[in-house]
Structure formats: structure tokens, C-alpha cells
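During the second half of the funding period, the structural biology subgroup turned its attention to how the target accommodates small molecules. The most pressing case was flavin-adenine dinucleotide, which had performed well in the primary screen but for which no bound structure existed. We therefore specified the complex as follows and requested a full 3D prediction, including the ligand pose.
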Amino acid sequence: MGRLIRVAIIGAGVVGASIARVLSMFEDFEVHLIEREADVGWGVSKANTGIIHAGYDDEPSLFPLRAKLCAEGNRIWHEWVKDLDIPIRWCGSLVLAFNSEEEKILEELLDRGIRNGAPSLEIIDHEKLKMLEPNSSEKATSALWAPTAGQISPWDAVIALVENSVTNGVKLHLSTEVKEVKVVGGQISGLETNEFFLKVDCVINAAGLYADKISEMAGVGGYHIKPRKGEYLIFDKDAEPKVNRIIFPTPTPISKGVVVTTTTDGNLMIGPSAQDLPENLREDKSNTYDGLKIVWESASNLVNKLPPRNKVIRFFAGLRPEPSGGDFIIRDCNEVFGFIEASGMRSPGLTSAPAVARMILDSLKVKFDLNPKPKAGWKRYRRRIKRFSEMTFEERSKAMNENPRYGRIICVDELVTEAEIVEAIRRGATTIDGVKFRTRACMGACQGSSCMYKVAVILARELNVPLWMVSLRGPGTEIGIGDVKALFIEKNKSKGKAKIDGEKL
Ligand SMILES: Cc1cc2nc3c(=O)[nH]c(=O)nc-3n(C[C@H](O)[C@H](O)[C@H](O)COP(=O)(O)OP(=O)(O)OC[C@H]3O[C@@H](n4cnc5c(N)ncnc54)[C@H](O)[C@@H]3O)c2cc1C
């Protein structure tokens, strides 16, 4: 092997994590994945529609990278979800047309999809549409059917990618914010962070909504990222009717439109809206009356019936990182040797991430004149935490006999046991959100009002910290701060230490 290339990837979202996994396959790289949040996947990758698009949306003459990488990414995800045990429904998507003008748009999408290499696309009539999706609107005249589209759990995807990368030698640095990109003599020399200085040969910029800022730090820049807000409503699991497929309207120039879909966990979800925000509002994930109203009305047009409003359990919003040029920015920057951009990752960035990772590997090969050597013993597979809710009766009995913590239900809505929460913590969760995204505790109808406290007690016990220091999502969000009386009482009883006894939960 030649010399070891030290690579820092900024951002543990789906793009950075995919790059980490691909680079972890080779002996030639020492990979550092740097994330300023307390956990992985908490940026744009957490709050989106979670669709693995088929690849017909983007016109290759206008957005060549989006067009090429989406169709390629879709193909790779079909393999990666099996390698990494990521929840997915390969249910296909439908774009509905309601009049002759929209039918013309379907023809354009079909033609574009064929040019992009999206397989098995078909325009179907009203009858076939009703067969594929009985809850689709009676008024829809035809639809574009894309059987290769899928619904993924986006945060599970990032967690899986990072777990697999770390197993294969990637060094993960959480709560580590890049403050400066050091360039000496036109070449990357290292990164200054709030925690340490890291000497590296190469920096890959996968910083999502902040990628333009990182690029400016390296003295490259030349583009801007603007947040485009998307709001959603999510229904309780027992809310009916649901949909079997992902349902889109015909797209507009700025958005694929409001979608009706069922998540991998069985919740009906509608959204997103599309509202451009000024550049300084990159953290504005608030919900608005207007945004939610648009979502409700647009979704209502696509289906025969939505569940009643009182079945909505949560609103949320995500921010798309819209690059000023429109297309993804994936390039090896000649201005600074060793600085590579994986930026401007707006939709379909989730779909495209694995293909982006392979493109970055190709860039590194050229830049560092490498013929990388596959890593001996590289582990292709990773398994997710076994869910009690998905076990058969026999499996549950066996699990409880082997580990009595499977017999303690912590989250009643989602049937999450203490054993799963302890396993999530063992795998790296240090916060309530970290446990939530790994197990679904607090994601049910009560949204944590009955189980969040119990999760906090387990976190305190397992991490050996005072209960009041357990946080929702890292420093500054400690649950003991504010009007949470029960926690203060608990703290006083145990003189600053959390109770250790799980029996008392
Ligand atoms: C409303 C909405 C709907 C979408 N729907 C879809 C869809 O259905 N299908 C699809 O394919 N795509 C979709 N997308 C797009 C997709 O979500 C994004 O393209 C993708 O998640 C971007 O991933 P990322 O890794 O580039 O960014 P992120 O997930 O944001 O990751 C970047 C990370 O960098 C970290 N970071 C930033 N600055 C620093 C710093 N200075 N130091 C250290 N760390 C730093 C951040 O904390 C963050 O975790 C949607 C997006 C939105 C918002």
C-alpha cells in the first residue's frame, strides 16, 4: 500500500455517512467523520419525505448531477438496504394527472425518466391506478407509475451507515464543530474544531445547510445555500385510510409537490410544502398555519379521503439546502488541493447519496493517483436493533427468558422495551432523541408524554449521569431545566444521582 490518505468528512448526514461507508472499504484512507450535533443524521437528513425516487424528476440538460445520481442512487439503495437492514417499503410511486395539460407533463416525465435510466416506468389509466391505489382520487384521469421508488426511514438509514462505517474503522467525532479549514500553500492542511485540531490531507464538505460556509472557510465558495422549508403532518398508526403507494401531484418548477405516503412504521404522512426562507433562517423549523393548510388542502386533492384531523399526532418541518445554481455541487476544487465538495444536496439528495459517495471515491482516486486496495475483513453487513413489536409470540417469550428487560415495556404506544433502549445506548445514543430515533420510544400517539421520563431514567442509569443532566438533544436541552417538577424531585431524592433500579420505572 502507498501512503495513508487522511480524510475528514464534515457532516454526518446521509451524504457524509454514505461517503464514510464507501471510503471505509479501502486500506488507503484514514477517515474522520465530523459532526457538530450530539448524534448523527440530525440535519436535513432527519426531516424529509424519505422517498427513494425512481429518477424521472430532473431534466439532465438543466441538472445533470441530480438526473444522473438519482437513478444511480436508487439502484444502489436496493443493495444497501439489504446489507444494512434499513427499513424500506419498495411500494412504487404514482404521479397523478387530473387534466390533459397534466397528462402532457406525465409524458415529459416519462421521457425524462427513460433518458435518466429509470426502469419500468409506465403511464397508466384510471382503472389501473385504482387497482394500484384504491384510495387515489376519483378525479385523477391517469398516472405515471414508477415501481422502483421506495419509502425509507431516513434517520435509520444514517444510523445504519454510520454504525457500519465505524465497525469498518471510521472515526466518528460527535459534538465537534468545524470552525476553520486550514489551507497552506494552496493545499488542505487540517481542520480547527471546537474540540481539537485535526491534521488531514483531504476535506470533504458534506455540511448540508452550512456547506457554503465551509466552502468559504476553505477560500473556495462562489455559491449560496438558501433554506426552503417543507412542512408535514403525520397521523397516528391506527388512522385510516392509508395509502399503499407514494402519491404525488404533477410537479411545479420548485417542488415535487405535496405527497401522500405511508412511512415504514405505518403512519400516514402528508407534506411537504415549499417556502423559500432568507439565508439567515437556516434553523427555522417552526410550523405555520399557512404551511399546514397548504399541505392539508393539497393532500386532500390526491386521495379520496384523509383520516380525521384529530388523528394527527405531530407536525414537523424540514429545510431543503437549495444551492444557488440549482444542481448538486460535487467537485474536486482545483483552487485548493484536497478540498472536495458534496454540497447543495437538496432533493433528491437522500436518493442520490450512495451514488455521490462513489463519485467522490472516483475523485479521490484521480486526485491522489490511487488504485485503492480493498480492506481485508471489511464488514458488509449490519443488523438493526431487534424490535419487540415486530417479534412473534414465540420470539418474545424467548427474548424475555434470555433478557428480562424485554419484559419491561417503556413506550406503550410503540411497544418498546427496556432491552431495546439499553441496546440503543450501547450503540451510541446519549440523548432522548438518540434513543427515540433508534427505537421509536416517544414516537407514538403520546409523543413522549408518558414514556420520555422513563427513557431519561434509563439514560441516566446507563450513562451514569445525574438525571437532570439527561438532554433531549445535547447541551442546552437538558430536561431538568425548566418546569419539570418530577425530575427535580427525583434528583433531590437521589442526591443528584439517578436511581439505578429499573424495577421502579
Ligand atoms: C422537506 C424535505 C423533503 C425532502 N424529501 C426528500 C426525498 O423524499 N427524497 C430525497 O431523495 N431527498 C429528499 N430531500 C433531500 C434530502 O433530505 C437531502 O438531500 C439530504 O438529507 C441531505 O443530506 P446531507 O448529508 O447533505 O445534509 P445533512 O443531513 O444536513 O447533514 C449535514 C450535517 O453537517 C453538519 N454540520 C454543518 N456544519 C457543520 C460544521 N461546521 N461542523 C460539523 N458539522 C457540521 C450538520 O449538523 C448536519 O448533520 C428532502 C429534503 C427536505 C428538507
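Two results from this model are relevant to the next phase. Residues 495-505 have pLDDT under 50 and may be disordered. The pocket of flavin-adenine dinucleotide is lined by residues 10-16, 34-37, 42-45, 48-51, 53, 177-178, 206-210, 230, 272, 318-320, 345-351 (CB under 6 Å).
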